[in-house]
Fold:
Amino acid sequence: MPNSLALQLYSLRHETATNAEAVVRTVPSLGFDSAETAGTYGWSADQWKNILAETKLRIVGAHVGLESLEKEWDSQTEFQRVIGNRRLVVHRFPKTCGRQKASQKRLGD
Structure:
């Protein structure tokens, strides 16, 4: 989709805490045609699929915890497939992960 603009739904985490569906439904009126998720708001993949169809939003990525992916790979990837998402983002590595410590040191954290 040319000139597509996506919103990271995590940036609206305070607003979605009270009425996630209403907030997600307003995203297109803010000028976005795509979104990146960070959680499911407790919705099933079919609920997401319906809301996305009604709003014409596309999901272009999802932030998913590494532990969740390791424990629930099949269900996580099936959920994302159903809602049309092809990108998973591991938003942070556990502090016990040596690579994270090395990365943090390089980035000055």
